[in-house]
């Protein structure tokens, strides 16, 4: 490589980021050196932005290009792709079943416990790299992660319980909610009615543009909104808010045999066996990220629906303006879906 050094953003806390010069790492056995091209912001970055990230350089929704590789590493220099978050162990019973999101002995999380995609160059083990087709824009490759991966995994969780899904309710029209909306349309059926609610009116126009049936909770109740769309009791509710009241309302709105899938972190959920659960035989499921092997099917969906899915990335910032990107993303009146921070 021509350069030996790079500038990396240091998250010091209190919403402040400055840059320091670091040496570009050299890949070891089975490692790839990734030149980062883009990283999407995520709500789970809030702690790093406001409280600092002393252990590593953040960035867990990254995509880039292989520029160097170590001995025995898979893939070729020049290939572009996305980087799976979990460095899984391969050996535990979950990994043996392909359930890498439930790895019992994972090594680390890229961007949380080891340097991630806000570094211009960073090391990964080759098995977490997923190459994308030449037709896929490298920025859009980031959609394979939290947007399509997390969203698609939640819809698959619902299908484990409910085999004849005819309507969906999504709590929260933020970035994860938009991913859930898109993957509900692509997984179940494009004409499937998918209601999506939020207390922030500014989030709903994009959701509606993407085919969602909006419910503005700042102006009407959930029941009023569902009645407006002609659906009294949805088969599936997926929560992306992490709010106990939102989960409770969604659970009580479900049809018989309905399933609530909880994606958002945060608060808990209180319910009564009767009438919430026992009589109508409702189910509650958790959903955590996604398995690496789910990326292949999602890659096909991305290739065929790139224009539709790329709407979720509403803003781009250069890495030098990463602090501004977070200020925008976390502002009370934010109009952002996903924000991409790009390396030129």
Structural account:
- With 344 residues, the protein is of the alpha/beta class.
- It has 2 domains: 165 residues, Alpha-Beta Complex (Quinone Oxidoreductase, Chain A, domain 1); 140 residues, Rossmann fold (3-Layer(aba) Sandwich).
- Helices cover 26% and strands 25% of the residues.
- The strands form 4 sheets. Strands 3, 4, 5, 8, 9, 16 and 17 form a 7-stranded mixed sheet that branches.
- Strand 10, helix 4 and strand 11 form a beta-alpha-beta unit.
- The radius of gyration is 20 Å and the shape is globular.
- The two termini are 17 Å apart.
- The mean pLDDT is 97.
Keywords:
344 residues; 7-stranded mixed beta sheet; 6-stranded parallel beta sheet; Rossmann fold; single chain; alpha/beta; Quinone Oxidoreductase, Chain A, domain 1
- Classified by CATH, the class of the largest domain is Alpha Beta
The total domain count is: 2
First-residue to last-residue Cα separation:
17 Å
Which oligomerization state do the chains in this entry correspond to? single chain
The percentage helix is 25-40%
Give the SSE layout.
Blueprint: E1 5-13, E2 16-23, E3 31-40, H1 46-51, E4 62-69, E5 80-83, E6 86-87, H2 93-96, E7 108-109, E8 121-125, E9 129-131, H3 146-161, E10 168-171, H4 175-187, E11 194-198, H5 204-209, E12 213-216, H6 222-228, E13 236-239, H7 244-253, E14 259-262, H8 273-277, E15 283-286, H9 295-304, H10 306-309, E16 313-318, H11 322-329, E17 338-342
Structure in a nutshell:
This protein has 344 residues and is of the alpha/beta class. It folds into two domains: 5-131 and 305-342, Medium-chain alcohol dehydrogenases, catalytic domain (Quinone Oxidoreductase, Chain A, domain 1, Alpha-Beta Complex); 147-286, Rossmann fold (3-Layer(aba) Sandwich). The chain is 26% helix and 25% strand.
């Amino acid at each position: 490589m021509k350069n030996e050094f790079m500038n990396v953003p240091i998250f010091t806390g209190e919403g402040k980021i400055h840059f320091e010069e670091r040496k570009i790492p050299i890949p070891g056995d089975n490692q790839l050196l990734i030149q980062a091209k883009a990283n999407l912001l995520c709500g789970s970055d809030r702690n790093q932005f406001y409280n600092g990230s002393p252990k590593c350089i953040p960035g867990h929704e990254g995509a880039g290009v292989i520029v160097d590789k170590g001995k025995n590493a898979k893939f070729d220099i020049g290939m572009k792709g996305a980087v799976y978050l979990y460095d899984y162990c391969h050996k535990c019973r979950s990994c043996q079943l392909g359930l890498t999101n439930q790895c019992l002995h994972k090594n680390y999380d890229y961007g949380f416990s080891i340097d991630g995609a806000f570094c211009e160059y960073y090391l990964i083990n080759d098995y977490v790299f997923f190459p994308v087709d030449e037709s896929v824009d490298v920025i859009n490759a980031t959609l394979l992660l939290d947007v399509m991966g997390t969203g698609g995994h939640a819809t698959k969780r619902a299908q484990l319980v409910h085999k004849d899904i005819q309507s969906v309710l999504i709590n929260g029209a933020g970035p994860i909610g938009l991913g859930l909306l898109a993957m509900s349309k692509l997984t179940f059926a494009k004409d499937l009615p998918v209601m999506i609610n939020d207390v922030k009116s500014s989030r709903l126009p994009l959701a509606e543009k993407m085919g969602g049936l909006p419910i503005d909770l700042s102006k009407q109740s959930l029941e009023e909104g569902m009645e407006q769309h002609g659906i009294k009791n949805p088969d599936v509710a997926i929560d992306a808010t992490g709010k106990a009241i939102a989960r409770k309302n969604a659970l009580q709105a479900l049809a018989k045999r309905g399933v609530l899938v909880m994606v958002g972190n945060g608060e808990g959920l209180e319910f009564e066996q009767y009438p919430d659960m026992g009589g109508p035989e409702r189910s509650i499921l958790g959903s955590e990220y996604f398995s690496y092997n789910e990326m292949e099917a999602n890659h096909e969906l991305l290739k065929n629906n790139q224009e539709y899915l790329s709407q979720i990335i509403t803003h781009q910032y250069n890495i030098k303006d990463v602090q501004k990107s977070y200020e925008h993303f976390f502002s009370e009146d934010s109009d952002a879906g996903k924000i991409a921070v790009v390396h030129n």
